[in-house]
Amino acid sequence: LLGESGTGKELFARSIHQWSDRREMPFSIINCVALTETLLENELFGHEKGAFTGADSLQKGKIEAADGGTVFLDEIGDMPLGLQAKLLRVLQDHEFPRVGGTRLVRVNIRVIAATNKDLKRAVKEKAFREDLYFRLNVVNLLLPPLRDRPEDIIPLAEHFLARHMREMKKRNRRFSKSAIQTMRCYAWPGNIRELDNAIARAVVLGVDEEIFPDLLGLGGGKDELDEVDNLPYHASLDRFGTRILEQAMRRSNWSQTKASELLGLQRTYLSRLLKQKGIQQGTEDS
Hints:
Layout: H1 9-18, E1 27-31, H2 37-45, E2 46-47, E3 59-60, H3 62-65, E4 70-74, H4 81-93, E5 95-97, E6 104-106, E7 110-113, H5 119-124, H6 130-136, H7 153-168, E8 174-175, H8 177-185, H9 191-205, E9 210-211, H10 213-216, H11 233-251, H12 256-263, H13 267-277
Parallel strand pairs: 1-4, 4-7, 8-9
Antiparallel strand pairs: 2-3, 5-6
Helix pairs in contact: 4-6, 7-9, 8-11, 11-12
């Protein structure tokens, strides 16, 4: 899985697992950049009793614990070269020794790896093993940043809202029209992770049923968009829409078709609004 940080690679990997015939088996997550090489090796492969000072008992690693299920290797591009060789053995032979041991442990796992790095370049620079790259690169999926899939913003926001309300035991929360417009027009540099965090913040801090833009913590606070909620939708665009329209057009690379979908408007109505506001339309759709 390829994509910028926060694009939902873990969520996508978990979905693959949940929709597969392995869904009743474990799903293990291993972050390859969060630990030192020694700790990561122990996390992956476990250790035998007495393998090192303090190893008072046998401990299974996450690969062994996930036998029959799925192992998600996040940020695989940051895995040390020494461990890459050991991982390759698991993928090729389906077996490995625990740290400090010689007995081979056999496993049956699916491996899903994710990175935000260019692994082809890393291979050329000798920072990533070529044989491991080809072993992993069976099905290659690119997850686009959230700014390139604006149609997903509100459905994802609703999903996160429902989840956080359930986890925090909050009820009857909904997004105001101004909050929806703000989320649609925001660039989301942190991608899905930033959206998830923004919704969690709004649920924690909100006391009213409606969630307004300031609760999302996106840098703008309450502004003229808050006034949209007191007006009919089309009237709100007529009165306050210049900045919203400009942002939507930029987000859509000046495609009126894409911008109209983003704003939930008919394309002909959007075209009329652009002319009324004197907004330069840029490249027209064919």
